[in-house]
Amino acid sequence: MLAYYFRLGVRSLLRNPILTMLMVLTIGIGVASSMTTYAVFRAVSANPLPEKSLQLFAPQIDIWGPQSRAQGADMPDALTYTDAMALLRDKKARRQTAIYPVNLTLVPQDERSEPFAINGYAAYADFFSMFKAPFLYGGAWNMAQDDTHAAVVVISSQLNQQLFQGSDSVGSTIRLDDHDYEIVGVVDGWNPKPRFYDVNNSDGFNDAPDIFLPFTRGIDLQINTNGNTNCYGSAGRNPGFDGFIHSDCAWVSYWAELPDAKAEAAYRDYLTNYAADQNRAGRFHWKPYITLRNLVEWLDYEKVVPPETRISLWLSLGFLLVCLINTIGLMLAKFMRRAGEIGVRRALGASRKEIWTQFLFEAAMVGVGGGVVGVVFTGLGALSVGLVFEPDIARLARVNTGLIGLTLVCALVSTLAAAFYPIWRASRVQPAWQLKSN
């Protein structure tokens, strides 16, 4: 019977090719629009480190007082150098790191090559294990090198390819801003999207950083931050780099790894007590106020997902709904035109269940066709999504096996849902009336 219903469906679809093509195109275009925007939304809203996202926390400390919030300024999303160093010194987390972005000039060993700018981060040794950075060669520097302010560096695989043609460069030396650094590791193409560890200094979708160097070394050489600096109420700051780092300007990103809920609660208490100590020391003149957000909460707080992606997703789903309504109308017209055929089949003994099965087969064939068309249009949409979104975001939309499968399933399910009412109407055709009138 299934093969029989399949033959009936093919015959019916070929009987009205234009109407069939309209239904397939309507489903295909509607599904493609929603799948294209879903691909972008999925890329920007995905959990970048699902295995550790609930163990990584970004603390905030109120360093400006409630008057800043009353004037519309929220707590800074970074720490001051003073607070970051105090938290590092106390070592209340399993792992912790302070981070700030840097911009340096690399001087090639080949004198015929021109120096060029590179970007990266000053961080602590725990950075790489906390964020599970994979290594192609070598590894991270150690804590002792943090303490000795060692002139070491970890470079990206892209920079390694550019300077050393992809060979193992561990132990080699590169020159950055008139200072030599020994390469201790090469990161293997690591650039999580979004760049969760530094969303307060970027949109989270930039190109991979070129280098990582010890935070202590960056401070020693007075390498200025290449990121945001918030200095609310910082009048009277002492001049120079030393005055900057000891001011109440917030510019240091900070992360702590806390393995479980007990460690999280203890760290919250520690931050509250630290803020209270600053109050007693006369630095703060307000009630201690801190926050501690895990990675997922932090990305939501920083509004990493661009609002236009959410809006586009809802609009595309609305467009899919319009396409389904049109498909309902086309199917209803197609099925009810065959009322005489249905009446004859019912008079010859076909049950309503058999009528349902026959037309569900036909609708499923339309859905599969619409899914194939949807896959093609989704691919075209992924190539042209840069016309709507920023280039850094648009290039994240990729057509992979999962998206193809989801497109086909969505097209099939949507078509079957749209066919429900037309099939119900067709199954209610009265055989006696049809036989009399035809």
UniProtKB/TrEMBL annotation:
The keyword Zinc does not apply. InterPro entries: ABC3_permease_C, MacB_PCD, Macrolide_Exporter_MacB. It is found in: Cell membrane. Residues 315-431 form the ABC3 transporter permease C-terminal domain. It is a multi-pass membrane protein. Keywords: ATP-binding, Cell membrane, Membrane, Nucleotide-binding, Transmembrane, Transmembrane helix. The chain crosses the membrane at residues 21-41, 313-335, 356-383, 403-424. This is ABC transporter ATP-binding protein. It comes from Dyella acidisoli. The lineage of its organism: Bacteria, Pseudomonadati, Pseudomonadota, Gammaproteobacteria, Lysobacterales.
